[in-house]
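Support request, please re-run this one:
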Amino acid sequence: MRPLTEEETRVMFEKIAKYIGENLQLLVDRPDGTYCFRLHSDRVYYVSEKMLKLAANISGDKLVSLGTCFGKFTKTHKFRLHVTALDYLAPYAKGFGVAAKSTQDCRKVDPMAIVVFHQADVGEYIRHEETLT
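Re-run finished. Output below.
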């Protein structure tokens, strides 16, 4: 497990910035500790520095995974986000959905009423992550 190179960091941060914008800094400097990104077998893991220090005693060939897999680099050096990263990206994401009515009100509302102001299609993020801006 090693730190990302400058190029790998740039490619990964550009991809993540498409979804959370300037909130990227909030992923690294969190109130519950400092987190970092590490590369292991072409996969990028999001791990706390405290956990990283504890894992230093394990040899790289014996280590299967550490932290949360954020994505992987393809053979052409493109970065693909994994669905496991959504739990960490969702709080800072641009959009995702804002409810206009409570669950009880939604059951009784007429068909033309607004229930959700904006709902992002999470599947669209995964299917078209190359072209989203």
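The beta strands are 2-3, 29-30, 33-40, 43-48, 68-73, 79-81, 97-99, 116-119. The first strand starts at residue 2 and ends at 3.
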